[in-house]
Structure prediction request, 238 residues.
Amino acid sequence: MDKEVQELQARLQYRFSDLALLSQALTHASASNARQPSNERLEFLGDAIVGLVVSEHLYLRFPEASEGQMTRIKSAVVSRRTLARVGRSLGLPQCLRVDSGLKQRKRYPVSLAANAYEAVVGAMLLDRGIAAASEFIVRTLGPEIALVVSGRHEWDYKTILQLKAQAQGKPPPQYEVARRTGPDHRGRFMTVVCIDGEECGSGWGTTKKGSEQSAASRALEKCYPDWMNGLQTLPPEQ
Prediction:
């Protein structure tokens, strides 16, 4: 475990003064006990800090950006999908303490990696303060901001579509698989998305989730064609 901790801290480019905080950040609720609390409280703290630091960074980095532009960038960067991807790149899932049931799974849920990232941020805040946590957040999420500004980010279209619908007072989008082709091991799915009973788009994918993202993307193009307006005018992240 000592070697694993050393290797993890090297990947994080951060050395904890209090290793007990790192240990807690890496303890899933399924493996917690009276002596070792879970990372849920640290995750709660980290979630707030990530949002704050990313918001401040966008405000200072892009002085000409509108509120809408900054909101779109932030929603992409602090999404579960993005935080999970960054958490996996840092090797956080491999270091998590989980129960035997989760250990037997071939792949952990996306939420575990995202939550672990936020818990580590919370641990850094308690370990050395806001400056240390901020440096880590900007360093690890800066490349994601650059991808959004350059138009190369993998957007979570389902989340964006839901936010757009909610902003208009409409119910959450509903997804339904309308067609399936191919054998079980190489199937393709066509999903239709409806908002308030009206079909808004459809899309294909090799998985149900992939087809839902494709359908949501088509719905944004049809119903909210200006959802990305303005991002291309921002200078690239340095």
Summary: The chain has two domains: 2-150, 157-225.
